[in-house]
Amino acid sequence: MTFDRKDYSNDELLRLYEGLLKPRMIEEKMLILLRQGKVSKWFSGIGQEAISVGSTLALHPDEYILPLHRNLGVFTCRQLPLDRLFAQWQGKKTGFTKGRDRSFHFGTNEHHIVGMISHLGPQLAVADGIALASVLDNEGKVTVVYSGDGGASEGDFHEGLNVAAVWQLPVIFIVENNGYGLSTPSNEQFRHGYFINKGPAYGIEAVQVDGNNVLEVYDTVRRLAEDLRQNPRPVLLEALTFRMRGHEEASGTKYVPQELFEEWGQKDPVENFERYLLEQGVLDEEAKQRYRRTIKDEIDEAWRVVFDTPEVTADTAEEVADMYRPFAAPDQAPALGAPTTEKRYVDAISDGLRQSMERYPELVLMGQDIAEYGGVFKVTDGFVQQFGKGRVRNTPLCESAIVGAGLGLSIRGKKAMVEMQFADFVTCGFNQIVNNLAKSHYRWGQNADVVVRMPTGAGSAAGPFHSQSNEAWFVHTPGLKVVYPSTPSDAKGLLAAAIEDPNPVIFFEHKLLYRSVSEPVPDEYYTVPIGKARLAREGADLSIITYGLGVHWATKLANEMQLDCDILDLRSLLPWDQDAVRATVEKTGRVIILHEDTLTGGIGGEIAAWIAEHCFTSLDAPVQRVASLDTAIPFAPALEQNFLAESRLRQCLEKLLAY
Ligand SMILES: Cc1ncc(C[n+]2csc(CCOP(=O)(O)OP(=O)(O)O)c2C)c(N)n1
């Protein structure tokens, strides 16, 4: 291995040396502790340290890095206190996640590090969002994110690079090509040879380095970073390296030919650099021993502290509370007698969004065709002219990357609204929502200030993939809020509330309501509180608990049948208004829960169970659920009508009244 020190001073070379030595020595200690049964398995970076160390030290300390599972050197070079880092690994409360997540699965804004979720690929889009924030604020900062060669097979890799290329984001995508993804060698993972072949296809410059040569990594990343700060654009940096240990400690390496260990053992990044520094007279034996002693003392002391720290104990209230960023929504009801304008549901949503854009300069909108075209439902019509292309962003077809970018923006203190063209397509961004947005506050205290707008629902003969009601998936996901207005006034006020709320909100908008309902909507900015239901109709004989289009079905039928009933419009599904449900059940004693979503696993089951548990003595009849058939949604109108819950509502009402 040859080193070219260029003009780097001895101090700079020694900083790299110390940077390399520390993660190596931490892992050597870990191996001893593992044999003693004092620590659990981890993902070793032995043999790959030069990549983490060279790239981290090449950046400014306030530039974000998004490491993966083998990047211990990132954390040590950013000077994380070792006792906190080890406490994190041991699941102690004094770690970075209060014992809630393991190993490197955490972020720390103080150190400008955003750690991974297990799924690997989602990191790339989060980096895009961080870089986008820096571009919007003209900060001249670079973001570095890592991928393995195996993780690069994920769709998220493609989406992350493509978005960065299209938006010219200053991200250095470092692919650590170590030849294996767990046990699978590269030739069973991809056919493109080297990753530098991929860059040009994305319109991205690609550079290859010897990932075991710390000077080469450092110099290359420094040079690239300096350039990217001035001329923002992504770069793909392929670092060739080798994983000298198993996928994780305990999984073995039988599947790796011995010759490879011998070959790469010769290229050890720490030993080679150390030898070079000794040869150059930059380091001598005494200094070498001094470095080792100092680091050893630091490591030993940190372990002593951690082993003396008691195990974490569970506090249920704290666990539940930390799922969400606390937020006391201010009371911003429209003033009585405030001027109104007759507005359709779609116009009210647009109005709420426009006023939020005016109120929050940090709010960024992203979605397919939302800029000049105004979105397929025209919610953002005219927004580009008013707010500019920077904040109203057309995206490629890449739901996952855009949701991930939303989290990245949030990490940089911005707000994001992501428009799904149709709620059905959220499946392609599902992982980012349920694993990244929903869990990041609980895991490491980082909120995801993202609203995902979801044009949803059936009734327009749009078939199985443009009609689904998928709110139940998200109601089942702690960390999210789920909102589903049924009227124009609620739609405007709830959207504003969702954007104000620092937590991730999935905001359902029924497509059929967009242009079929209208009412006077207050002109001023106002919010409708999340979590509060609304009595849409009052009566004594029974209660219909519903939301979305269900409110309109129930109202129509109640009028036709001249029912004396409560219709409770839930408006929010997570959290849902238990007080309002209790009040209506206690009042009428007869309950139908109506939803457009399919029956099994729908929200109706949850509410019915809650009523049975909490209001049993108030009931005069069994709780009824009316929902759509447990099938996919058919296209032909006759089939669709038969599918929808509305077709069975009258029969159920009659049955309940007669009970
Ligand atoms: C979506 C997903 N699928 C599978 C896994 C299990 N898994 C964890 S790491 C890994 C191999 C990753 O290989 P690579 O990206 O090359 O990184 P390396 O471990 O070699 O550093 C696998 C399959 C996972 N974490 N996430």
From TrEMBL:
Its cofactor is thiamine diphosphate. SMART domains: Transket_pyr. SUPFAM superfamilies: Thiamin diphosphate-binding fold (THDP-binding) (SSF52518), TK C-terminal domain-like (SSF52922). It comes from the Bacteria. GO terms for molecular function: oxidoreductase activity, acting on the aldehyde or oxo group of donors, disulfide as acceptor. The keyword Oxidoreductase applies. Residues 343-516 form the Transketolase-like pyrimidine-binding domain. PANTHER family: PYRUVATE DEHYDROGENASE E1 COMPONENT BETA SUBUNIT, PYRUVATE DEHYDROGENASE E1 COMPONENT SUBUNIT BETA. E1 component of the 2-oxoglutarate dehydrogenase (OGDH) complex which catalyzes the decarboxylation of 2-oxoglutarate, the first step in the conversion of 2-oxoglutarate to succinyl-CoA and CO(2). This is Dehydrogenase.
